[in-house]
Amino acid sequence: MSRQIIYSNSAPIIWSTVDEAFNRINDNFTELYLSVGGGGAVDLTSLSTNVIPSTNETFDLGSPTKRWRDIYLSGSSIHLGTAIITSQYGAVNLPAGSTIGSLALDENYFKTIAVAGQANIVADTGTDTLTVAASTGIALTTTAGTDTLTIANSGVLTNAAGTGITVSGATGNVTITNAGVLSTIAGYGISVSGATGNITIANTGIVSVITDPGSGITLDTSTPGTVRITNAAPSVPQNIFQTIAVSGQSNVVADLPTDTLTLVNGTGVSITTNAGADSITFTNSGVTSFAVSGVGLSASAATGSITLSNTGVTAISAGDGISINQSTGTVVVTNTRYGFTSIAVGGQSSVLADNTTDTLVLIAGEGIQLTTNAVSDSITFDVTYL
């Protein structure tokens, strides 16, 4: 398009507002040259001077519906009314008293709340709220007028030691120490239990002593805490065995003075008692001797057990046409040399023997006659004519 010069006080274009003029220009022209004070034209794509409105606080840059896309500024400050927004090292600095919504941005504030040994609490946004929660024995009171938070101990306020107990609160903790009984040890026939915090002493041994009439036993309890048992019948044996023990077996213990030990016959054993001689006889009624009569076998009874040993054949080797299978503990001898296990016909599937007793059956086809001879073990094939 050829260059045209437009004056604001003459035809062909006269506008009432700057905004209307720029709208018309943007809609009709690709290039705009303005005459300033009757001098040369102004190229808006390449300015060499300041752009200053002719009247203070009257004209706008862009409109709500037609906005400039980006603004590129190389200076370090923006004057917005009386406030100055500055830039330093890639960061924007807002003037004191600036707000985000209704929240004022103070110069000094804590963003992180830290407690030793605990995870830090960090504000996620400028409107984030820190909530203080009370635990057992703690009461929280807030006063909005004075901006205070009061933390009070609503649990233990004082502590008094009792008998055998000492209390220490020097570290802020209440420590209760037993300065009296520290341990209990059970004696013979006595057990101690402190599971509930109490000490219970229980007699787990003798709780009473009773004498039977005519037993020859008397009791003397004249000495406090002592029970004396006296045998008034010297004829009663003083030394006896109360326990019968067998190595590797449970002990047999007499439960009462009248308890009886009973001997029971086991397999191959007979028991005979003789009251007159006060004797018990154990007899082996099972195997009394063992004689080896098999070929290649020997016997040993040195340890009280009978051991059979094979001193004859210890191995079998397969010969010509013979195979041996010992996997099941038995020896199976199989003739693998003679006999056909497969019958093959050219162009046909082979006929295989499934086992040693399997039978091959020959079937006569059309025009064929089969004749068997059991004596000569032969089969004759004859052709029959139709």
Task: Explain what you see.
This protein has a domain at 350-383. 3% of the residues lie in helices and 29% in strands. It is built from one helix and 29 strands. It has one helix spanning 18-28; strands at 33-35, 41-43, 77-80, 83-88, 91-93, 99-100, 103-104, 112-113, 121-122, 138-143, 148-153, 165-168, 175-178, 190-193, 200-203, 217-220, 228-231, 243-244, 252-253, 269-274, 279-284, 297-300, 307-310, 322-325, 332-335, 342-343, 351-352, 368-373, 378-383. It has a three-stranded antiparallel sheet with strand order 3-4-5, with no helix packed on it. A two-stranded antiparallel sheet has the order 1-2. A two-stranded antiparallel sheet has the order 6-7. β18 and β19 (252-253) form a beta hairpin. The longest helix has 11 residues, at 18-28. The model has no long low-confidence stretch (mean pLDDT 76).
